[in-house]
Amino acid sequence: MNDDVRRPDRESGDLGHPVVRGGRHPVSSVVVLGDGPAGTVAAAAAALNGDRATLLGLGRIPDPGTLETLDLRAASALAGLGWYDPVVERAVPCGPEGWVVDRAWLDPLLRDLAAAAGVRIRTLADRVRTRQDDEATEAVVGVLAAGRHTPGPRRDLGPDRTVLTVSLPPAALPGLRGRRVEVAAGPCWSAIGDGVTCSVSLTLTGALASRGPDALRAVWRRALGSAPSWLPDEAADQVPRVDQVRAQIRLSDGGPRAAGDAALCVDPLSGRGLTLALEGGVRCLDDGYDRWLVEQSAEYVAAARAAYDAVGLDPAALTVRARA
């Protein structure tokens, strides 16, 4: 148990979104596409609301060391499903931030908990059989939770971000529990650790002209010139993996609901991706969900602006300075 973060519970009023809220009535069937945290939670919330819920996905397990922070809001979403204890007992406390979780164990654990809650879990290869099973139902509600590349109309909330990440042994940053972020006069450096592994990321604004190993190594080494003092020497010889992210909100078009990055994708430096995935998954079939998404996007934009203003930088000024 993390003594710095009080356990959310219904009695204390911390849990602001119990699963069954009366915001909608159960429907005959809910089919969720995407079995990451957002989709899994969405299917479980539907099942606990009395729906016949099916979760379609690939069953992928992220690589070990795919670390994220679990804050009090995210923990409250889990508590609403009755999942607080099985998740938090495996998470690593990191002070007021909450906990660090590794997606390598979190994702399969959430799917196991969803199955225990009555969710039918199917691979995408089973989708034809699932569709035939659902033909006799009176109503089918779809939820898209297949990540930020899910098709649909979107509005940008910020510029493209290029994130370069290397994984290191815990001895490289001893004592690191949680996230550490530092904005220099160009790139943004961050690190996260759970005592078993740690990762260091460089976040730049803009897109890389090339993603080849030589190009990535060149960008990484140039950025090391402005690296913070806590960056371990071991990071210099690594070839980083690359991810391209743009903060966006999906626009309502009368089609299926969306959750997680498919609905609201945020700057990875915000540390709020898992929180929005879990909260959004719980809420995505409720009346007022679209309004909640807009509110969360506005809150994110304001928080991002305040974070960059605090160090005297404009987010758009953090550009990729090296191109291959």
General description of the model:
With 324 residues, this protein is an alpha/beta fold. The protein folds into two domains: 29-153 and 252-307, 3-Layer(bba) Sandwich (FAD/NAD(P)-binding domain); 154-245 and 309-317, no CATH class. Helices cover 29% and strands 25% of the residues. The protein contains eight helices and 14 strands. The chain has helices spanning 37-48, 72-81, 84-88, 103-116, 127-134, 213-223, 273-283, 289-310, and strands at residues 29-33, 52-57, 67-70, 92-93, 99-102, 120-123, 140-144, 154-168, 177-183, 188-194, 198-205, 241-250, 257-258, 264-265. The strands form three sheets. A six-stranded antiparallel beta sheet has the order 9-10-11-8-12-14, with helices on both faces. The protein has a five-stranded parallel beta sheet with strand order 6-2-1-7-13, sandwiched between helices. A three-stranded antiparallel beta sheet has the order 3-5-4. Helix 1 runs parallel beside helix 4 (103-116). The chain is globular and about 60 Å long. The model is unreliable at 1-6, 10-18, 134-138 and 311-324 (pLDDT under 50).
